[in-house]
Design goal:
The complex is a heterodimer of chains A (537) and B (363). Chain A has 537 residues and is α+β, with helices and mostly antiparallel strands. Helix content of chain A is 47%, strand content 11%. The longest helix of chain A is centred in the last third of the chain and has 36 residues, at 436-471. Chain B is mainly α. Chain B is 74% helix and 0% strand. Classes of the chains: A alpha+beta (537), B mainly alpha (363). The interface between A and B is medium-sized, with 24 and 30 residues.
Chain lengths: 537, 363
Amino acid sequence: MFGYILKKIRYSALKRKNMSHDTATDKNYNEPLLPDLEKNLDVIKSILRDSSDVTVHEFNFGHDRRYKGALVFIDNMVDKEEIHKNILKPLMYDVLLLKKDVDMDFTKIDIIRKNLISVMDSQKVTLLADLLDSLLTGTTILLVDGSKEALAVNLRKWEARSIEEPGTEAVVRGPREGFNENANVSIALIRRKIKDPDLCIEKLKIGMRTKTDVYIVYLKSVANPKLIEEIRNRIGRIKIDAILESGYIEQFIEDAPYSIFPTVSNSEKPDKVVAKILEGRAAIVVDGTPFVLIVPMLFIESFQSGEDYYARPFLASIMRIIRFLSFIISTLGPAFYVALTVFHQELIPTQLLISIAAGRERVPFPAILEAGLMLFTFDVLREAGVRLPKPVGQTIGIVGALVLGQASVEAGLISPIMVIVVSSTAIASFAVPAQTDSGTILRYIYLGLAGIAGGFGVIMGLLATLLHLSSLRSFGVPYLWPVVPFNLSGIKDVFIRMPVWTMQKRPSVIIWDNIDSIRQSPGLMPSPYKEDKDDSK
Amino acid sequence: MGKVRISSIQLFLLLSGFLFGSTVILAPAKGAKNDAWLAILIGGACGVLLMGVYAAIALLNPSKTLVDILEEKLGKVAGTIVAILYVWYFIHLASLVFRDFGEFICSVTFPEMPMVVVIGLFAAVLLYAVNSGIEVVGRLSELLVPLIPVIMLIISLSLFTVHDFTAFLPILENGITPVLKTALSFITFPFGETVAFLMLFPHLNQKEKLKNVVLISAIVSTLMQVLIFFRDISVLGSGLMDRATFIPHLTSLIIPEFNIEPLVDINLLIGGGIKISVCLYAASRALCQIAGINDYRNLTGAISTFCVVLSIWVHESVLDLFSWTEKVWSYYSLPFQVFVPLLLLLLSLKKSKPSNAGTANEK
């Protein structure tokens, strides 16, 4: 009882503190601009505290140079040549081509915009806050003495990476292009693949200080409106000072923050994202990162690769099964080895048992310690290899493989079979990139359980994992769909990949209302050229 | 609470898993020796009827749990007392299954492990399951229960070469009495135990399918039991079968050159897990309703801990457990499984008839 009251009091105190905190940081400059150029410039300069990259260029224009104007922009974020060509030159020189007695009042921004400025993308701003917003995102501000308005001209230009092949999702067959840090480029890449008026792109600004552009991209007639509404709500809820990567958004909108399994997927490849948008999912593009989020996520997506659909179904199906097996090996390999050698020797064929025993003869540690040590070493090697510069990274690989592998066996620290188990586990763990995090954690958990209670412990761990997986939902979609709950048309794309012409429907669980679920007409199975059909014509 | 929904296929699999339960390791109709198949068939037929009674009770009292029905039909005081007895029954049932499980693991797979560790670990996982909600247990059953027949099939096919198909002869060597006795115990274990599902039936999303789901699952599991019996007896012979403790496990050991014993463990784990989690859920839900607590999750921890302790404490050894199960359990269960449900059915029929007529008149 007292605890409850105390909690209430603490909560309300916290709330009050938060509210005052909000008003303190949120300086909103909701004042209108003044008609006096000097004063406006002073205000802007004082707000920006004379930052060195803010350039203010004052000039006079008009026939007798009686109008005063100023350009404010941030160096290195604008195209100075274009500013010169399209703003300064028209205002200062091309204006002289007009007759001297023409009746134009150049203190009116509208008149300047319509008659002189030769840039398409420009906007009038009247509030100081809007002016600052657009100035800080890289637009050029034109202020004119005597006008209560300013013109924000979009002539942004900054150094950016070109479109490259992403490092994380390399393919043998399929498009090589990847998203880059510029959200506009990413959206253009999506738009270039879906030429459909239904493709909706909603823009939001998240982050009180970074003001990061976040776009929700979806197909209006395919995506479930409830899903979009839910995404809007969850993203709109975020009150944070900075969004530096889509991972920030992911952690604020995911369904199960305490789960080791991701419920939001991400990709760097436009073809993958487009395929998912076409299935009724929504993509969340965040400015400043090439990783686009896709919701909802199904567990099975971790095992699907874009290439599965570009290759013919036979090898694709085999690869799919191999991916499942490697996920099982990567999580259960060391645990099974420990459980078998410590608890269930009777399950090992005798010949193998003898060679395992011979290998372990000189090893001083219990099997679980041995396995834990090797797994730890592998994870250290992997982490070090990622962070180090490439040439050194190779050295680390050699050191790891030769020195640690070979030498530790020869020194009698590790049994040779353990090296095989751990290295096959390590290789298998890279086959399913989307579940690398959860796989790594599960590996240690299962290993511990195997050391404590053998196969029984591992099975208990598996049972708990399955329980957890079947309790997960991603934006209302059961995580294990289409296996649980079972769906016949969905299962076509789980353990094997059926030919593309058999997959007529979109995943029914994502488009809840089953509107527009057919994605191709039936009976598209190709058949050989028929003689008699041709004769009848 | 009303929001929890399980689909008819999930209920079917839950029921089937529940019926397999510990029968995966204990041949349920062992007492009838060679004629066990007859006992299974007779018991199965009665079991189908009994489960039909439960379904009828659920259908006559839609969206009401066992506790609601008891309190409505027997009055507040008597209903509450009977409901508390039911809570005890579910707890006892769960702890018996725990003990079966623990005995099996400890005597077969992990002879050196203390039983409380085995049962405790299992209980921890099942506690997590029950706390995640009966929906999740349903979804998990969708994933795991189909494995049971697959594993059965694997074991049966690997034993194809060692079958002796005449082993169950002669028929009715010892007369009909032991067959009928065994049939009675087969009704109570496993069919009558599904009385726990009266706490679950309100969650079914398609009420009209309830009857079919219940009947099909009862028939399917009866047939499976008969098949398993024929497999076991044709592999082991009646003499060995009489002496063995864990018959299906012994059968799987006979498979030449290959050890698939862990598969039996997995079957037991699935069946027993579903049985225990349904019992735990039923017990905690019922106790919650009696005591007027909002969320059954407040009680699951306490109840499952109690089950673990009870399971260790209630019997001295596996032989004690088995003889008790054989001799006492069926009579001990009869009131819970047969008498009270029949009474409830009669009362529901009596009370629903006038009201049905009334609604018909209104229409």
